[in-house]
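Subject: sequence -> structure tokens, single chain

Hey, anyone have a minute? Need the predicted structure for the following. Not urgent.
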Amino acid sequence: MATSTSDPTATYLGAVASGDADAVRDLFAGEPLIEDPRHGRVAGDGPMRLFVAAQEAWMRDSQITLELIRTTIAPNRSLTEWLAAPTVSGTRTELPIAVVGDRASATKVTAIRVYHSQWPLLHAHRLRGPILPEDPDLVIPDVVGEYMAALGAGDLAGSLSVFEQDGYFREPSGGPYVYRGHEGILAAYGAFYKVGPIHLRHCTVIDDGVACGVEFIADAWGPHPFPSPQAGIGVYERGTSGLLCAARIYDDVDVDLGLLPA
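Reply:
Had a minute. Here:
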């Protein structure tokens, strides 16, 4: 598991949770730029300070705890995954969070993008439009590229073939929406492909050789185009075999077809 306590994406949530706006400011090489699922785009020092104060109050009131999953560092970007545990209406729940940073150096970023579903918080989805442009020349490597090809074709056998025997797929809501082993993978992707292939446009790749994060724009599910394309990221972790031991998705895609898990 790759971790870095000095990488900006690994220190960002802790700084926000403490209400330390100066610490958040110090993560940026220039003016702060944060894309947040709950607050949208936060640009500039003044808006950032108001945002940090609001987020600190929400995280404190929700009694959020943070568990580090991993940090993935590539030359131009880094990515840290967390499993947050907020209290919602008196009940402890899971909130998977991914934080992406465009790196200016080993300790500074030019922008931070946060991804998580609203479902664990609101029991509803909230549309989130594209944050980044598609990169049509992007190359998605090895088994991760095979995963994307199967997803785009609605190929159940192909989706099964890219996972290790004990691999798992986790939906953005976490909690009960984790599907383990080939039986779980078949159940999850079998439900998805009843609707049809999942159409993604890819924006960035963040790959350290073990985990590969792919920021994307979700356009449509099967024959059903979304009213507006939606932003997200998937993280695909390779096991010792070279196949995927994990696929963790962070988005808030909502398809009201009555066929899909939440």
